[in-house]
Amino acid sequence: MNLLLINPYFEGRVYTPSIGLLVLATAVRREMGIPVRVLEPSLQGYSFQQVVDIAKDYTHIGVSCYTESRFSSVDLALAIKRTGRDKVVIFGGPHVTSLGGSFLKEYPVVDLMIRSDGEKALLGILRGSEFLSLPGLVYRGPDGRIIENPIVRDKKVNCLDVDYDFIEDVIANWKDFEVPGRLLRKRHLPIMASMGCPFQCRFCAAPELGGGLWRGTEPSALVDHMEKLVRERGIGYFRFYDPLFTANEKKIQELCNLIIERKLSVNFRVDIRVGTRKDTLELLKKAGCGVVGFGVETGSDKLLKIAGKGVSRRQVLETIQVCKDLGFWIIGFFIYFFPNEDEYDRRQTMDLFKYFDVLNIQFFKIYPGTSYYREFVAERVMQESFWFDRSIPSDTYFCKETFSHAAFSMNEGMRKIAMSYDLINVKSFGNSFKRNGWKALMTLVYSMAHYVMLRSNTLFNFKNFLARRGALKPLKWLLAFARVNPW
Ligand code: B12
Ligand code: SF4
After folding, report:
1. Site residues for ligand 1, CB cut-off 6 Å
2. Which region holds residue 369: left if phi is over 0, alpha if psi is between -120 and 50, else beta?
3. Above 80 in pLDDT, residue 485?
4. Which of 92, 148, 193, 224 is most buried, by the most CB atoms less than 10 A from its CB?
């Protein structure tokens, strides 16, 4: 018996290895000692067919299924099953956690599904335990009926317990490219120390996925762990991927004090929330955290309220100011094209861009398990069959092609996002030139040309035509080389 775990993203769509799969692989190897392999095709450069070929040698196949990878997950399972019917295909991850039994009913190729935390049920399956006793397991009963065991979330957090050796090839040169240049010289590592989020943003699946529960590691255990990784792997920069690192500010202060006391010389990045206290941020900075990210989403008070963020534009500005005063490098996460968003809302959002060192602007998407989704179902805008319909793109943008009441088509939306990035580069040229010299000049010329091109539909379509043929690759390499942070 052996186990292959796959994150089925292909062709460069994923930048960070899945810590969830590492948690599972580590638990199975430690508890059972059987051979386990983790595949990150997008990061390791494996094609679909290469993954199918590798899977031939495994008895149990675990697939992590996100909404965006729902079709590639199923296609992969079908192709793997074709190579040997005796293989057991097990699905887990956010998409199937939200959809539950209907997913298993739709796809007979999937043998078993595990909702939420996967280790206990996965170990149980491999050990041949009674299905009834396995938390979160979804399976077919003897009469073919779908049975869903209740989800049980362990209070203890598991995400620290990972063996990076499973993906040594990915980790060896992995970098978080959103940080200032001086940090890029250090050895980077993605890490997580807590799970879940107690907030209720209406566009996010986290409240339902984590059952509103926040689980954190004890500060002393986390510092021990960081120390070990510094010593054994020479890590100089940790990128914490916790959904909300600062959920318990008392614990964060304790952690920072320990890092300072033990003179642990590392840098790290965490995601904070608007409203994180100034004294907590001061301590974080002192302990080596020079980079913070936060989900602002929108600059419009109207939309912040509708989206359930629980903060106001004034609070956003206050947090930005505190972070700037303390000298943090700040990264802002924004969403464009919320339902009910108008031009004024978007201008309010764009007006905040100038404060950030790095921006991340996403097109609003609908995910199962979110309160927006539930509302759309209640309004009969969507129904569950939506997730199984192959005519709907795997990226579930809130765009005209998919939702008749959306404001923009996908192309229009993407154009607006690209134009916003170009405008930022143009507007911030003075600042950028001081910081980046000739590289900023190159970015300026590119952004101006790109902006003009995006205004014309014909030129935009021509650019897409060239991109599809790979003709823009050399330009992309050049831009990657001359990449600058504008502010
Ligand atoms: C951190 C995070 C990330 C990090 C990942 C960090 C990492 N290295 O793992 C980054 C930024 C890279 C990321 C990327 C993406 N993310 Co994300 N992410 C999160 C976040 C904030 C926390 C996830 C978490 O707690 N992980 C902890 C680990 C331990 O848990 P886990 O990965 O879920 O794995 C456990 C279980 O799910 C299960 N499991 C997972 N896979 C499998 C497979 C099998 C076979 C089994 C049995 C079990 C199993 O067992 C694991 C161990 O217990 C959540 C929101 C939230 N607060 O929950 C969003 C969230 C999960 N992400 C989301 C999305 C959409 C994405 C992206 C698709 C975004 C994008 N467009 O690029 C990518 C896809 C990444 C991928 N598949 O590789 C959505 C998922 C919604 C959905 N239905 O698909 C969420 C819920 C946020 C949201 N928008 O609502 N993400
Ligand atoms: S967007 Fe962030 S703060 Fe809001 S519920 Fe999701 S993880 Fe929590």
Report:
1. 7, 9, 14, 16-21, 23-24, 62-64, 66-68, 90-95, 98, 114, 117-119, 122, 158-159, 190, 192, 195, 197, 204-206, 209-210, 241, 243, 367-368
2. left
3. no
4. 92
| pLDDT surpassing 70 at residue 241 | yes
- CATH number where 375 lies: 3.80.30.20
Q: Work out the widest C-alpha separation in the chain, in whole angstroms.
A: 71
Nearest to 336, CA basis, from 328, 326, 348, 327: 348
Nearest ligand for residue 307 CA: 2
Q: Ligand 1 centroid to 458 CA: how many Å?
A: 38
Tokens of 83: 């190579």
Both tokens of 473, joined, read: 């690759």
Dihedral sign for Cα atoms in the order 194, 196, 201, 205: positive
- Ramachandran region, residue 174 (left: φ > 0; alpha: ψ -120 to 50; beta: rest): beta
Do 301 and 323 sit in the same domain of this protein?
yes
Interval between CA 143 and ligand 1 midpoint (Å)? 33
The answer to whether residue 281 scores a pLDDT higher than 60 is: yes
Question: Number of folded domains in the chain?
Answer: 3
Q: How far is the CA of 209 from the centre of ligand 2 (A)?
A: 11
DSSP states along 273-313: -TT--HHHHHHHHHHTEEEEEEEEE-S-HHHHHHTT----H
319 and 456 assigned to the same domain: no
Q: Which helix (H) or strand (E) holds 407?
A: none
- Over the stretch 62-117, which tens digit does the pLDDT of each residue have? 999 999 999 999 999 999 999 987 899 999 999 999 999 999 999 999 999 999 99
Instruction: State whether 413 and 477 are in the same domain.
Output: no
Residue 11 has pLDDT above 80, yes or no: no
**Percent of the chain surpassing pLDDT 90:** 77
Token pair for 405: 């009441």
Shared domain for 214 and 313, answered yes or no, is yes
Mean predicted confidence (pLDDT) in 193-216: 92
Q: Pocket residues for ligand 2 (CB within 6 Å)?
A: 197, 199, 201, 204, 206-207, 243-244, 295
Is residue 156 in a domain?
A: no
Last residue of a domain, one of 87, 119, 148: 148
Q: Among 177, 209, 238, 333, which residue has the most ligand 1 atoms within 8 Å of its CB, making it the best to mutate? A: 209
Picking from 148, 180, 196, the residue at the C-terminal end of a domain is 148
β-partners of residue 268 are 238, 289
Across 372-389, b (16+ Cβ under 10 Å) vs e yields bbeebeeeebbeeebbbe
- Which structural domain range is residue 326 located in? 164-426
Of 171, 134, 123, give the one whose Cα is nearest residue 27: 123
